[in-house]
Amino acid sequence: MMTEYFNIMPFLNPNHSELFKSTDFELTVRGGANAGKTYSIADKLLMQPIIQDAPLKALIVRKTLPRLRTSTLEVIEKRAKLFKLPFELNQANWVANIGNLKMQFLSLNNKEDYEKIRSLTDIDFIWCNELPELLETDYELLRTRIRGGKSSFAQFITDFNPIGKGTWVFKRFFEKNIGNVRKLRYTILDNPWATKAEVERLKDTKDHNPNFYKVYFEGEWGELEGLIFDWDIVCKTREQEIAGKSWKDIINPDEIFYGGDFGYSVDPAALIRIYRKANEFWVEQVIYEKGLTNIQLGKKMHDAGLDDKVPNYWDCAEPKSIQELYDFPFNAKPCEKGPDSIRAGIDFLKEQKIHILD
Prior knowledge:
By secondary structure, this protein is an alpha/beta fold. The protein has helices at 17-21, 37-52, 65-82, 111-119, 136-143, 168-175, 196-203, 210-216, 238-242, 247-251, 294-303, 319-326, 341-350, and strands spanning 26-31, 56-62, 88-90, 95-98, 101-107, 125-129, 155-160, 182-186, 232-234, 255-261, 269-277, 280-289, 311-314, 331-334, 353-357. The model has no long low-confidence stretch (mean pLDDT 89).
């Protein structure tokens, strides 16, 4: 019986050879938009059990599980299927078996997450996606988890966009230069699959948004102060989950209302539930989906339990769509936009105490 071979070389980024070859214990990869770093890190991990001919374990971490699922997990599953590797995901414990590679996907957002991390053993590789989302103490904890594996080398890989020199990541790795860390930088110009149009769009930001250009085109450290909100992410405690408590029970808000945005083919339709208590706000995602007609959107709002008396605010440039939701019936209202509304909105949000509910 003949063995079927699959040549993955045409799918590997030839400009990321240093990443693929690195056996340094700590490897940090910074870069701009569409640099392909996430794909190459996923490719490197998927190849290791084949290259080393051994069963290996990898831990994949991001601050929250929803972000992890829509970033690294999605990329890993896509690449595994492209390379014709078996992919089996157990969503009960978020463990994927990919041939001889076992991948554990974990967030680092509450006490239960930290306990799970501390209980892990025999880890060969850790990949921490979007490192600045974590605390430096989280990083230190993760470093202790790589031990007792079967790989010929253990490696802690991190990646991020270098959004600000005020982060602990810059201070630790670049200002103080702590540890013997291999530091790599990639840009969209290192991605042979990036289109000319994609490159030009990023280049065009140089004159009107030099910070954005520096971070997302050059992959260098910038200060995107005007684009960053200092919001935290809140999860239910294990006790609250067991008790079946809703966010309304936990927060006991003074007011609940909704904000939405119409979308269809390119941008998704989105709806968030907002809990207000005094001058503090908690934001919960309700709907985020492409391809919804207004009728389908209305049905999903109904299924989500929206009260027809609770106000929900939408883009005032879509009066027909707002009227269709109002006729459903929902208490759909147009938002108010004054002069320089975008900047005024950003300034207002930066002054508020806002929490994102996970």
